[in-house]
Amino acid sequence: MTKPISDTVDAEPRRRVHVRGPGDLVDMAPYLLGFRPFDSLVVIALPAEGSQVCLTARADLAEVRRAGFAEYLAALVAQAGGRRALVVVYGATVAGPPGELPERDVVELFAEAAALVQVELLDALYVAGGRWWCYDPCGSPVCCPPAGTPVGGGGSRVAEEAEGAGLTALPDRAALAAEFDPVDAEQRGAVSAAVRVAEQELVQATVDGGGIGPWREDAFVLFRAVFNRIADGDVPWLGRRVAARLLVGLTDTLVRDLAWSWTNESPARCVVAGALWRQLARRAEEPYDAPPLFLAAWAAWRSGHGPMARVAVERALAADPGYSAALLLEQLIAQNYNPGTVGELLGPCPLDFASGGPRRRRGRLRRHAVEDPAASVVTGASG
Q1: Which one, of 275, 191, 284, lies nearest residue 227 by Cα?
Q2: Per the domain annotation, does 383 fall within a domain?
Q3: Are 146 and 190 contained in the same domain?
Q4: Is the pTM of this model over 0.85?
Q5: Considering 142, 171, 200, which residue would you say is the last residue of a domain?
Q6: Within this chain, do residues 94 and 37 fall inside the same structural domain, yes or no?
Q7: Do 155 and 207 have their domain in common?
């Protein structure tokens, strides 16, 4: 049996947007996902009390009809602490009278599965052609008009509040995936040439230093310089030599793990870290793109952007099917592991970026073939 595929968004970090009715819910759903869904079932989970969203999950309508998939979605809701659920169906057919709304079977499949895990279905809505309908209308033509109610879209109050809270709604999932599309061949070729030079530097440093230790210390210095440079949230376009050194550095498990720990330290850090790793992934050739794709996936997942995390981890595994860290994250996403408790998996970053070395280590690190990396971060400064 193939793995269930759905897009999930965890509740972390918390962002407050006021939703006052089903129309607001329709406007809010794309911002919870990060893109505007089509031909999809979207499930928004709430706890037994209160209005804090526990989980938002999306799946293709055809996927929901697969045997056992509705039960899988319901289990995700329950596992996330959801005891109530709201469902929004995004269809392709403009609806007729309320009793004849399309895709009712999908709603019923989920409702039956939810009941088995003590999750109450509060409401179900259908969206198509820029309008929405309720599957169980109240009968009032004012509240639930037969012709449907216009979707507020990007100009609605909810959209303005969501965007003010830092949320975005890209046109579709393909637009989300495009965030990881490679740069043009000429730019990738320039970085690839620099990667070959960085590989030669690694070999030479290992020979000259009697082992990989000196090269690894230099990698720490470079990563520290870059991390300090982007600490204010601005990620510049890196010079190709710096980008190449970072990519080669990430092939070393210890260096990669330090970058992983640094990324993981807070959801807020994941925003800037994610931008850095996406840039590197887009500029790298296989298999050098696998580590930054994994780190970008982790940053997205850690900050509550499940759909982006799934896109990135899929691409990481396409580049390197055996990449163990990406396989771990794939399982965490599939099992709806709460990224808010990820501290149980990773400790604090052992690299002290303020002092320039591992926290457990005393003394200055050797700087081997790294000429003032902080000054060579921006394009052009490093050749």
Answers
A1: 275
A2: no
A3: no
A4: no
A5: 171
A6: yes
A7: no
Judge if 157 and 214 occupy the same domain.
Answer: no
End position of a domain, from candidates 119, 142, 171: 171
Distance CA 200, CA 67 (A): 53
3-class secondary-structure state, position 11: coil
Note whether 55 and 85 are same-domain residues.
yes
pLDDT of residue 271: 86
- Largest Cα separation within the chain, whole Å, is 82
- Give the other-Cβ count within 10 Å of 178's Cβ: 12
Q: What is the pLDDT of residues 104-157, one digit of tens each?
A: 999 999 999 999 999 999 999 999 989 999 998 887 878 888 888 999 876 788
Give the mean pLDDT of 96-109: 83
- Burial grade of 56 (CB within 10 A; 0-12, 13-18, 19 or more): buried
Distance of CA 90 to the CA centre of its chain: 22
CA 117 to CA 79: how far, in whole Å?
10
CA atoms within 13 A on the CB side of 383: 9
Check whether residue 347 and residue 221 sit in a common domain.
yes
Paired tokens of 98: 């309320």
How many domains does the chain contain in total? 2
**Long-range contacts from 96-101, C-beta under 8 angstroms, 24+ separation:** 97/146, 98/133, 98/134, 98/135, 98/137, 98/144, 98/146, 101/126, 101/133, 101/135
